[in-house]
From TrEMBL:
It comes from the Bacteria. PROSITE patterns: TAT (PS51318). One of its GO terms (molecular function) is hydrolase activity, acting on glycosyl bonds. Belongs to the glycosyl hydrolase 74 family. One of its GO terms (biological process) is xyloglucan metabolic process. SUPFAM superfamilies: Oligoxyloglucan reducing end-specific cellobiohydrolase (SSF110296). This is Carbohydrate-binding protein. It comes from Streptomyces aurantiogriseus. The keyword Hydrolase applies. Keywords: Carbohydrate metabolism, Glycosidase, Hydrolase, Polysaccharide degradation, Signal. InterPro entries: TAT_signal, WD40/YVTN_repeat-like_dom_sf, Xyloglucanase_GH74. Residues 1-33 form the signal peptide. The keyword NAD does not apply. Coiled coil: none annotated.
Length: 740
């Protein structure tokens, strides 16, 4: 248990967080910062999202009970947002969190103060694992425009199992100075100074577990606070309450059994004085196969089961209709009106049920739903029409509009104003985890992207979701590779996790696709990065399993009709094509620190430069456009290296000491070399930089308001627009910047 006061400090929403957290080795930060000079002045850039629309798991939505049109949303890896009903748009609130604070982009819980409408609290922390940093509390007096930060001594888990439960953070109904925070492994915490300091609640009777869920929800019912407990076995207590803020007790008569094992969410109808609780046999969002809904008459202590449909039935095709229950919300304007959602219901598809008589009868809103996803076409997932949704644990009902219901899914946030017509209510909220970016030198689109969960997209415009949606034929979940023939930009290839093939090619610049006629057997279980040579006549496909196991690469010279194993290619390496000579390929062996090259169109590879950095968790080998043999090696802990002889030798670039990813764009006026863009460290901080003089000097182009946590996956400039850069984030979509 943690009882000592915790660190406090104030930050603006546009100010870099100062203290580093213990970070996962793959993305930890500034070990050399003390040796560096102060940062140079940043170039003035305007940063915006390349619009896709949502694309990630919205884990919680909270309408403010005292302010019409004000709501907040949380995501598992992409920060928190504020909704403005007047503009129908979400505003990101946590983009100021920088590289060292990458673990705080996951939002575990949100709390508002009904008595003080401008106050907002966030509980941040993406992972509770040993390699992740501790959580933090952000406190705001102006709806998230500025923040005061408290670093916790416990870990939170916004991207772990149970991330759709909650809220786990609550302002006490008896005092605005008192806050409660439910943790996963450290019990219940309490603050009596509005979140500035926290102490463990020794009177909370549940025993924390190192591997369990801990507190799953906190909700006020009048002046009583209820806490859900996720570690019970289905027979023990999983719901507690306090009426005085000091003494906690089990709630008498609470439901037991597998269908009521984990309390997921709760909502209180103040008019009928009934507390509704949704349950499942697992915290979700995955793994739920049973569940129920119960209500407690708080005045009498009577429990009543009001489950709309019990899991376990059989669908028309003979599948078992297994699922749990997730979200719950009550209609403040209409006593006895409540909505609940199913979760993890794959056979019959998830739905939202609505009751107007306290749960005696229910109507499935899915049955009459009319969807309009024209603003975000990818939500059709390559089919004729979208599904109602999945992973529905975030569910909210507007306290000022009984027809306004919103619910989150694994990819978006749907809303209705009349209980029939639904559309994404997602403008401004972008949560994509981006893996690959290409900016073509010609054609309609300036950007093609590859992402986790939503595959590859062709961006005709940066200000609207791609009209074609995600690439089809086949549809991918997560993209693992994306490449364009440098001298033939109409030819693009992609690889990834797909149900009907793991590789595809395009002959019209990425607008339409056809699957490879064949693929190596290993492709289905370990699709990895792909490269195509300068004229598009040869493909090299590398294979890496999700558990890190590396396999030999394969080569095709007939557009994927046949494949041959390349035994001399370093296993698991990322193939890189020379942009000017179609006979040349390169690969960097991170295990040995060796650069390999092929001069016979990828048939064989031989070692060239040796003794380069090895064992580092992140390497990026990039070829400068329009040049033969001009290679740049970006190494996280060891900086930047360059070869101008096709990898025979490398020299270290002295202008930066850490480099995470590197890309190129159109040269500045009068410059002979392309602009270079980098996420790295040239001075005291990790930031986004541009160089117009071959990495002799750099200028920072992002600012303290635009940092986005982990941004080290990929970056590329626009070959047609000097100064424009596209940046991949892990949870805040594609950011693009332009000089102003």
């Amino acid at each position: 248990m943690h009882t000592s006061p915790l660190t406090r400090r104030t930050v603006l929403a546009g100010t870099a967080a100062a203290a580093a957290l213990t970070a996962v080795p793959a993305v930890s930060g500034s070990a050399h910062a003390a040796e560096q000079a102060e940062p140079t002045a940043a170039a003035t850039y305007r940063w915006r999202n390349a619009v896709i629309g949502g694309t990630g798991f919205v884990t919680g939505v909270l309408f403010h009970p005292s302010v019409r049109g004000l709501a907040y949303a949380r995501t598992d890896i992409g920060g928190a947002y504020r909704w403005d009903d007047r503009t129908s748009r979400w505003t990101p609130l946590t983009d100021h969190l920088g590289w060292d604070d990458w673990n705080l982009l996951g939002v575990e819980a949100i709390a508002v103060d009904p008595a003080h409408p401008n106050r907002l609290y966030l509980a941040l922390g993406t992972y509770a694992q040993s390699w992740a940093g501790n959580g933090a509390i952000l406190r705001s007096e102006d709806r998230g425009a500025t923040w005061t930060r408290t670093d916790l001594t416990v870990k939170l888990g916004a991207n772990e199992d149970g991330r759709g439960t909650g809220e786990r953070l609550l302002v006490d109904p008896r005092s605005s100075d008192t806050l409660w925070l439910g943790t996963r492994h450290d019990g219940l915490l309490k603050s009596t100074d509005r979140g500035a300091t926290w102490a463990a609640v020794s009177t909370f009777p549940a025993t924390p577990s190192a591997t369990g869920q801990g507190v799953t929800l906190l909700v006020a019912a009048g002046r009583t606070v209820y806490a859900g407990w996720g570690d019970a076995d289905g027979t023990a207590t999983n719901l507690y309450r306090t009426a005085d803020g000091t003494t906690w007790e089990p709630v008498p008569g609470q439901p037991t059994g597998t269908a009521a094992k984990v309390p997921v969410r709760a909502a209180y109808d103040k008019h009928t004085r009934e507390l509704y609780v949704t349950y499942a046999n697992a915290p979700g969002p995955n793994g739920q196969s049973d569940g129920s809904v119960h209500k407690l008459a708080t005045a009498t202590g009577t429990w009543t089961e009001v489950t709309p449909v019990k899991p376990g039935g059989t669908t028309s095709d003979g599948s078992t209709d297994s699922f749990g229950y997730g979200g719950v919300a009550v209609d403040v304007c209409r006593p006895g009106t409540v909505v609940v959602s199913t979760n993890n219901r794959w056979a019959a598809v998830d739905t939202v049920f609505r009751s107007t008589n306290g749960g005696r009868t229910w109507t499935s809103l899915k049955d009459t739903a009319v969807f309009d996803v024209s603003e975000t076409p990818y939500l059709k997932w390559g089919e004729d029409k979208p599904k109602f949704g999945w992973w529905i644990q975030a569910l909210a009902l507007d306290p000022y509009d009984s027809g306004h219901i919103v619910y989150g899914t694994g990819a978006t946030l749907y809303g209705t104003r009349d209980l029939v017509h639904w559309a994404p209510q997602i403008r401004g909220l972008e949560e994509t985890s981006v893996r690959q970016l290409i900016s073509p030198p010609a054609g309609e689109a300036h950007l093609i992207s590859g992402s986790g969960d939503i595959g590859v997209m062709y961006h005709e415009r940066l200000t609207a979701s791609p009209s074609r949606g995600m690439a089809t034929n086949p549809v991918f979940g997560t993209a693992t590779g994306l490449a364009q023939a440098a001298a033939k930009p109409s030819y693009v290839v992609r690889t990834g996790w797909g149900d009907h093939g793991n590789g595809a090619c395009s002959h019209d610049g990425g607008q339409t696709w056809a699957p490879f006629e064949a693929q190596p057997d290993i492709a289905k279980s370990a699709p990895g990065p792909v490269a195509t040579n300068a004229d598009g006549s040869v493909l090299l496909w590398s294979f890496v399993h999700w558990d890190g196991t590396k396999y030999p690469a394969y080569r095709s010279a007939d557009n994927g009709a046949t494949w041959t194993e390349v035994t001399s290619f370093p296993k698991g390496a990322t193939p890189v094509a020379d942009p000017a000579d179609p006979t040349l390929f390169y690969a960097y062996d991170t295990d040995t620190g060796t650069l390999y090259a092929s001069a016979d169109s990828g048939r064989t590879f031989t070692a060239r430069a040796t003794g380069l950095p090895s064992g580092d968790s992140q390497f990026k080998l990039v070829a400068a456009p329009g040049r033969t043999g001009d290679l740049w090696l970006s190494v996280k802990w060891n900086g930047l290296y360059r070869s101008t002889d096709g990898g025979a030798s490398f020299s270290k670039i002295t202008s930066c000491w850490a480099s995470y990813c590197l890309g190129f764009g159109k040269a500045a006026d009068g410059a002979a070399y392309p602009a270079i863009y980098q996420v790295g460290s040239t001075e005291t901080i990790t930031a986004v930089y541009r160089s117009d003089d071959e990495a002799k000097t750099w200028v920072r182009i992002n600012d303290d308001r635009h940092q986005w946590g982990w941004i080290g996956e990929t970056i590329t400039g626009d070959p047609r627009v000097h100064g424009r850069v596209y940046l991949a984030t892990n949870g805040r979509g594609i950011q693009y910047g332009e000089p102003v």
